[in-house]
Amino acid sequence: MEKKIIYLKAEQSSYVNHGKIHIGDIASVFCEDKEIEKKIKNIVLYEFDEKNEKEGRVFLSILLLIEKISEQIPYGEVRNTGETDMVVYYKAEELKSKKWVQVIKILFICATCFFGAGITVMGYNNDVDMVKVFGQLYKVFLGTKPDDPTFVELFYSVGLALGIFLFFNHVPGKKVTNEPTPIQVQMRLYEQDVNRTFLLGASRKGEELDVSGNNDSANNK
């Protein structure tokens, strides 16, 4: 029988809200034979106990996926183009936060960021004595020392607000450009670091689901 080429592209982390984890839940699959592709996507890799577990995570090796596919499609050749180690997070459907809870969380985060940034800016202005700096600038250009706040402070405040919007690439309602914001970049980097830490720990402790032989040896240590 002619060998069927099967392409896999697994994601480093995936989220599911059902107990049975299928290959199609954590990886993209391509094969010219669509029946084989559909069959591979429906292969079960792991099953959470939905009665006793409402959330959890499991660590998988790409070798486990290749082994499961080889059992079902012995005449297939698997080519992986994605991750070699994966973490799958499970959270039951009923544990999803209600809309009003999400709104409260968003408002709390916005308030924290707003007041935290405000205190940071005020602390910086106080440390460098911006009032004195503005007074000196005013005297240099106009020859007199102001007794009250001047237009310099106004321009500084407006420029500071515009600078924050431009730096974070976001204004109320839309982005300034199509590029990800600095916060989005940092969140993705943080997510990758967390996943790598989980996967490294699972590999060292023998908690990663690998091919059958390796699983047995890990469990016997």
Describe the fold and architecture.
The two termini are 41 Å apart. It is elongated, with a radius of gyration of 27 Å. It is 52% helix and 20% strand. It is of the alpha/beta class and 221 residues long. The chain is built from eight helices and ten strands. A three-stranded mixed sheet has the order 4-1-7. A three-stranded mixed sheet has the order 2-8-6. A two-stranded antiparallel sheet has the order 3-5. The model is unreliable at 216-221 (pLDDT under 50).
How is the secondary structure organized here?
Layout lengths: L3 E7 L2 E4 L3 E3 H4 E4 L3 H8 L2 E4 L7 E7 H11 L3 E5 L4 E7 L7 H30 L1 H13 L8 H17 L2 E2 L2 E2 L6 H24 L6 H8 L2
Beta-strand residue percentage: 15-25%
Number of strands: 10
Task: Tell me the span between the first and last alpha carbons.
Answer: 41 Å
Radius of gyration: 27 Å
Low-confidence stretches: 216-221
Structural class: alpha/beta
What is the overall pLDDT average?
85
Total helical elements: 8
User: How does the major sheet shape up?
Assistant: 3 strands, mixed
Order of helices and strands: EEEHEHEEHEEHHHEEHH
Helical residue percent band: 40-55%
Give, in spatial order, the strands making up the sheet with the most strands: 4-1-7
Apparent shape = elongated
